[in-house]
Amino acid sequence: MDSALVSDQAAYLPATVRVTAKILVVGHFAVGKTTYVSSLSEIRPLRTEETMTEAGALTDDLRGTEDKTTTTVAMDFGRLTLSESLVLYLFGTPGQQRFTRLWRDMTVGALGALVLADTRRLEQSFPVMAVLEEHGLPYAVAVNHFEGAPRFAEPEVREALDLLPETPLVTCDARDRISSTHALIALVQYLQARQTPPAPFPGGGRVGGGLGYPLRSSACPN
Amino acid sequence: MVRPYVVTDGRAYPTRNTFDLVTLVMAHPDRPLTGLSPEKRRVMELCLGGALSVAEVAGYLELPVSVTKVLLSDLVDSGHISARAPIPPAELPEVQLLQEVLDGLRARL
Ligand SMILES: Nc1nc2c(ncn2[C@@H]2O[C@H](COP(=O)(O)OP(=O)(O)OP(=O)(O)O)[C@@H](O)[C@H]2O)c(=O)[nH]1
Ligand SMILES: [Mg+2]
User: Fold this and answer.
1) What family does the entry list (chain A) (predicted)?
2) Contact at CB, B64 and A106, closer than 8 angstroms
3) Which CATH architecture does the domain made up of A14-195 adopt?
């Protein structure tokens, strides 16, 4: 890194890009976040770290009090050029550090989040979902299926994760680009449906809940 | 990793707070690099190659995002770097942005 010109390894964006968007990929330890971002990214995924105090302040706010407990918050991210003018960034992070600056940086302006979950430890997804809810960030859940992990029917997973009826739940293989793309599409379809309230049903149907879009249309086969 | 305050002359926060992780930044090629700190020169060297997001600058330079923002903010103040202005929400409503994201993702299948 020191000897090689850093500009030689950078993948620059074309001058036509005018819009950048971001989506978070979150989940507990070893659920497949980095794998997921790598599968989708057109660039070698990058990583940044921030050292914070337990209270969430940057370490250099506390010069001279170096003995304060600090934690390192890391995120890795990738990039997808979606059109001449639009680039999507995916930020992967454990996401339990609710008060950190990095977490705020990631959530501000984000379109939404994809929560990766593992059926062997669904309960470990709760803290992450709680943080997203605190930040008011809409999310979809993608079960990243590991070999040997139990396969549950969708209602069981929904119940175990205590999902709202409208929250999309899909299955994906974080190692597979197409499968991972389907999961992202499910999220974006959901975000879009939230923006456009469903047309009222003729004859005065229900309002809210049970929206008329296909929650599972993007679940991958297998 | 570099101690942040060494790089930023002791400041933890940028003078302006307009940078998002996905703000695109570009360097002005005609600006002299004399007098810039080594870290700012590295930012310039990287950014002279073309447009990158703030997050990518941090990633390539192996610097924390907070430090990167301070450096970029100084370089904007000194006229070395400009941030590509985001499109105002009035011009690109979120519904439309989401549609474009969706179209782009589907095209990758
Ligand atoms: N079988 C299988 N293995 C996977 C899958 N996704 C990830 N892995 C493996 O699981 C391990 C953890 O994946 P990572 O992508 O590093 O998980 P992470 O969420 O980034 O982990 P942390 O950053 O440590 O929290 C790695 O060894 C991956 O190769 C999957 O879909 N199936
Ligand atoms: Mg990881």
Assistant:
1) Belongs to the GPN-loop GTPase family.
2) no
3) 3-Layer(aba) Sandwich (3.40)
Q: How far is B44 from chain A (nearest CA, A)?
A: 10
- Residue B32, pLDDT > 70, answer yes
Nearest C-alpha neighbor of A199 from the set A217, A212, A214: A212
Average pLDDT over residues B51-72: 95
**Residue B87 identity (one-letter amino acid):** I
pLDDT digits (tens, 9 = 90+) for A154-209: 999 999 999 999 999 999 999 999 999 999 999 999 999 999 776 666 544 334 33
- Domains of chain B (ranges; CATH) run 4-108 (1.10.10)
Contacts of A110 in chain B (CB under 8 A): none
Judged on CB neighbours under 10 Å (0-12, 13-18, 19+), B10 is exposed
Cα separation, A183 vs A114, whole angstroms: 8
**Cα–Cα distance for residue pair B61/B52, rounded to 1 Å:** 12
- Among A111, A108, A110, A85, which residue's Cα sits nearest to residue B84? A85
- Structure tokens that stand for B17 in this block: 């707070």
- Mean per-residue pLDDT over chain A, rounded: 83
Chain B residues 51-80 with a CB less than 8 Å from chain A: 51-53, 55-56, 58-66, 68
B104 with A184: Cβ contact below 8 A: no
